[in-house]
Structures are given as C-alpha cells and as structure tokens.
Write a structure and sequence with these properties.
CATH class: Alpha Beta
Order of helices and strands: HEHEEEHEEHEHHEEHEHEH
Number of domains: 1
Structural class: alpha/beta
Largest sheet: 8 strands, parallel, barrel
CATH architecture: Alpha-Beta Barrel
CATH superfamily: Glycosidases
Number of strands: 11
Shape: globular
Strand order of the largest sheet: 1-2-5-7-8-9-10-11
Helix content: 40-55%
Strand content: 15-25%
C-alpha cells in the first residue's frame, strides 16, 4: 500500500472516530425523558383541536383528564358520579372525548378521578364513623373508581390514578385499598399511581403495589414575598431528601401528580392555599418557584416528571398577567415550561 493511500485511510478513520465521539457525547448529554404533563381541567364543553393544540405547543407529552365524583358533605357515604347534571368534562363521556383529542396530538393520558365535597371541604379528612358507613362508602368509591379504570383501559391510557388526597381513608382502611388495587389490576393493564398530598405520601402503605409514588407537591419552600430561584431551591432540599428516601425504600419512582404555584406574593409559603382573597399578582414569584422545582427535581433518576396545576381548555380566555391563580397560561412561566418540556422530551 502506497503512502498516499495510507494517509487517506488514516484521515477517513480519524474523521469517523471523531464523529462517533461527538455522537456518543451528544447522547450522553441528552437528559432523560420525563413526564411533562398538564392537568387538563374539566369544562362544560367538548375539547376542540385548538384546545389540544395549545397543550402540544408547550411540548407537553402527557395530560391528566379528571372525572369528578361529588359528595354532599363529609359524612355522606355515597359518591354521585357520571350524571347528566355534571359538566361534560367531569363525566365518563367527557374524559373519553378529551383523551381521544389529546391522543391525536400524541399526548399520553393519565386518568385521575377526584372527589369534590360541597363547599370545597378537604377530601383528606374524609373519615366514616361506623363500620357500616365505611362499607357503604367503600362500595360507592369502588363503583366510582372502577368505572374510570374501565374507561382508562378502553382508552389505552398510559397511567391510572386510583385516588386523590384521601389521607384518612387510606390510613384507616389499608385492607380495602389492597383489595381495590387487586380489582383494578384485573381491569386495567397500564401504570398505576395514587395522588397523595405533600404531607401524606410518607404514610401510604401500598406504594410497592403501584408503579409511581404520586405526590401533589405543594411543599412549603419559602416565606419570602418573591423568592429567588436559589432561595426556592434551598427550601426544597429537605423535601427532596425525604422523597428520595421514600422512593428508595419502596423501590418506586416519584411522580408529581400535581405541582405548581400561584402567581401571588408569598406563593412558596403555603402553596396549597387557593383562596381568592389572595389577589396580589406576583408573576416573578410563580416563575422562580416553578423553575427551581423543575431544575432541582428533573435531574434526578428517581423522579419521573409531573403534571402542572392547572391547564384550562380555552387557552386564549384564561390566565394572563393580571391573573393570580395557579394556571401558567399566558404568563411568563408558560414560556419557561415550554423550554423545560422541550429539553426533557427527548
């Protein structure tokens, strides 16, 4: 072989080696794909193409559809659900229509049934007084949940959430929950989670039976009016360490079944508060807190992603810079979510 041919071959393999190194380096730098979800709020109306286009436009790859059951008061042992008197999006037909529209945009689905008690009383306090009341309530809850487990299976939904913020029910009736999970698994073959409140998830006894430890992540992280990103990250550290420990103990990853902050002063102090008396708009606080949470959590291998609270279907008519509620829509934080969702969609 002459010298020129040797040089050409050397150059060829050198270039090939460099290209291979660059490709491998690029692959190594790509972050792990996460669940970049929105909580798709039930409406009176059907979802149209423009409604799901708005979800796709921020690179969301998941949406939670949320059917509702209603209780007249905390002592009522019966859940009313899937009736003509409910809003369309709260019913079985509604979540099916929403999910079918979202799937047309390649957006995966979590079906997340929730209970609403009259006057907005907290579902975590639901606790029956007698064994008879518990049995009645459990039968009613099973009817509610299994209705939507069947719907989730028919939809081929990727995740089914077996309950939302039911602390006293979960603590007081562990055998019922194991039985319910067994019944759900006979119907539904996708991934399972339960949406525990931020101060509840450590006490849930059945995480090993599920695929994700669901957390509604309203952790208090700052008492500052407008926390910086660094201050918010610092406030997350103890909660992050706690979540990692629970994840490792149960050998099950964490999923934020809800997360988000209101665009108000002191939004990181008690993030679960939804009082409409809080009207002091603070877009910077919402943005900084959200960025801090995503930057801290999304890099962790034991964290699967989450669902921002909350996303209304008529995007052009909601949110905005004068809005003090949770929605990120038409606020600066929406653009930040779009960047992160794009980054973690590989």
């Amino acid at each position: 072989m002459d010298v020129n041919k040797t040089k050409l071959m050397f150059r060829f393999f050198a270039v090939l080696f460099i290209q291979l190194v660059l490709v491998l380096s690029s692959c190594a730098q790509k972050p792990e794909k996460k669940i970049n979800g929105v909580s798709f709020v039930a409406s009176r109306d059907e979802a149209a193409k423009e409604h799901v286009d708005a979800v796709a436009s921020i690179h969301a790859n998941y949406a939670a559809v949320m059917p509702f059951g209603f209780m007249r008061n905390p002592k009522t042992a019966t859940i009313i659900h899937n009736t003509d008197r409910q809003w369309f999006g709260e019913t079985e037909a509604g979540i099916i229509q929403y999910a079918e529209m979202l799937k047309q945009q390649n957006i995966a689905i979590m079906v997340k049934p929730q209970i609403w008690i009259s006057h907005g009383e907290f579902t975590g306090h639901l606790k029956m007084e007698t064994e008879e009341e518990w049995k009645t309530f459990e039968n009613s809850y099973s009817s509610f949940i299994l209705t939507y487990a069947k719907a989730a299976q028919a939809l081929n939904a990727e995740i089914f959430c077996i309950g939302t913020e039911l602390e006293q029910f979960v603590i007081n009736r562990p055998e019922y929950w194991l039985q319910l999970i067994s019944e759900i698994k006979k119907i539904y073959t996708g991934k399972l989670t339960y949406a525990a409140n931020w101060d509840e998830y450590k006490s849930v006894s059945f995480w090993k039976e599920l695929d994700y430890i669901g957390v509604d992540a309203y952790f208090p992280v700052s008492e500052v009016k407008t926390p910086t990103i660094e201050q918010a990250k610092e406030g997350l550290q103890k909660w992050k360490a706690e979540m990692k420990q629970v994840s490792e103990t149960n050998n099950t990853p964490i999923l934020f079944t809800e997360y988000g902050y209101r665009s108000v002063d002191f939004a990181g102090k008690e993030p679960w508060v939804s009082s409409r008396e809080m009207t002091s708009v603070n877009l910077e606080a919402q943005t900084n807190l959200t960025k801090a949470l995503i930057e801290e959590m999304y890099v962790e291998p034991w964290f699967k992603g989450g669902f921002i609270w909350k996303w209304f279907i008529k995007h052009d008519e909601v949110g905005g810079v004068q809005n003090s509620q949770f929605t990120p829509q038409n606020k600066p934080v929406e653009a930040e979510l779009k960047k992160y969702f794009d980054l973690y969609s590989n």
